[in-house]
Amino acid sequence: MPYSKIAALGHYVPEQVVTNAYLSTLMDTSDEWITERTGIKERRWIDPAKDTVANMSAKATRMALERAGLKEKDIEFIVFATITPDYFFPGSGVLLQRELGLEGIGALDIRNACSGFIYALSVADQYIKTGMYKTILVVGAEIQSTALDVTTRGRNTAVIFGDGAGVAILQAADKPGILSTHLHADGRFAEELYVRDPGSSRPREERQPEQILDTTHYKVVMNGNQVFKHAVTRFTEAIEEALQANNLRKDDISLLIPHQANLRISQFIQQKMELSDSQVYNNIMRYGNTTAASIPIAMSEAWAEGKIKENDLICLAAFGSGFTWASALLRW
Ligand code: UT7
């Protein structure tokens, strides 16, 4: 049975930089509050005239293809993680497939929010291990800015989320690159972090224009304290589970790339696991929380900065809406 490894990484973030100072002109917030509670200094927002989830992903894919010396036609399958597809349906996988001119290949969408990229990586890893495909494009991409409530009413979420896309090209290999993936979910907490509408299970009368404007539509509801508490526990459990499954210790981790939810969450995990600064990668300061895109963007940047080297042990971990959480261990 073949193994799978990441052959290349790529990312794209929109040009428009949105600072905490700018957000303070839209709502009652401050650079001080946002920095202290989340570590975020700025994030990127798309220009709706230019960017889509699919074309941002295509740009990230082209970066990865170029780095790997591959061509579009080498991609045999797409696994696309997003909770903010360009259309309610079809999913973003088919739109990216069209952008890349790959008509005919399969495209699968995954909706596991912040854990989406690791779930997607896990699916692609299994397809490669069974021999079904040899080269799979794994994507995490989100446009969240267009749905944020940028008034004081929405400030507990509007300051956190950002836009961007990241990809990994997964290929068959003769020695293990992806050592393991572990996936978890607990739906009892679904409503602690969710967007209710456009959901399907409400009567037609609830879908009148005034109710849509009144805005349960796309409104992110988050019980921040509850999410934070579960996150710090589940992140650590998922990392420890991955280490145990591979008979490895936390000292063996060359680089932990946690989902960029909140710098305070990353710091908490680092402290709890007694990892050094050089063992943990964070870029939330510049991009905010880009949900499914955060891990591939961070991995792509870390690689470009020379922080991921041959034979390194890379640990990915995520927690988010669902609740879902997951980890992956990779030998580079
Ligand atoms: O990707 C996974 C998904 N999300 C997460 O992992 C998020 C996890 N949770 C968090 O990161 C934190 O809970 C937040 C950063 C979202 C919030 O921080 P917090 O320390 O839990 O604040 P809080 O919600 O308890 O609110 C404290 C105060 C409240 O005011 P009062 O009631 O004490 O007067 C809020 O109204 O801060 C207020 N507040 C704000 N003030 C200024 C909430 N948002 C803002 C804001 N600017 N943007």
Which helices and strands occur, and which strands form pairs?
Blueprint lengths: L2 E10 L3 E4 H7 L4 H8 L3 E4 L7 H16 L8 E5 L10 H8 L6 E5 L5 H14 L5 E8 L12 H4 L5 E10 L4 E8 L7 E3 L13 H6 L5 E3 L1 H22 L9 E4 L4 H10 L11 H4 L6 H11 L8 E8 L3 E8 L1
Parallel strand pairs: 4-5, 4-6, 11-12
Antiparallel strand pairs: 1-7, 2-3, 6-7, 8-13, 9-10, 12-13
Overview of the molecule:
The protein is an alpha/beta fold and 332 residues long. It folds into two domains: 3-174, 3-Layer(aba) Sandwich (Peroxisomal Thiolase, Chain A, domain 1); 180-331, Peroxisomal Thiolase, Chain A, domain 1 (3-Layer(aba) Sandwich). It is 33% helix and 24% strand. It has helices at 20-26, 31-38, 53-68, 92-99, 116-129, 155-158, 209-214, 224-245, 263-272, 284-287, 294-304, and strands spanning 3-12, 16-19, 42-45, 77-81, 106-110, 135-142, 164-173, 178-185, 193-195, 220-222, 255-258, 313-320, 324-331. The strands form four sheets. Strands 1-7-6-4-5 form a five-stranded mixed sheet, sandwiched between helices. It has a four-stranded mixed sheet with strand order 8-13-12-11, sandwiched between helices. Helix 3 packs across helix 4 (92-99). The longest helix is centred in the C-terminal third of the chain and has 22 residues, at 224-245. Oxa(dethia)-CoA binds next to helix 2, helix 6 and helix 8.
Q: Which series of helices and strands comes N to C?
A: EEHHEHEHEHEHEEEHEHEHHHEE
Q: Which stretches are low in confidence, meaning pLDDT under 50 for 5 or more residues running?
A: none
CATH hierarchy class name of the largest domain: Alpha Beta
Overall number of structural domains: 2
Task: Enumerate the strands of the largest sheet in spatial order, edge to edge or round the barrel.
Answer: 1-7-6-4-5
The small-molecule ligands in this entry are: oxa(dethia)-CoA
Largest sheet: 5 strands, mixed
Averaged pLDDT: 95
Second rung of CATH, namely the architecture of the largest domain: 3-Layer(aba) Sandwich
Bulk shape: globular
Report the CATH topology name of the largest domain: Peroxisomal Thiolase, Chain A, domain 1
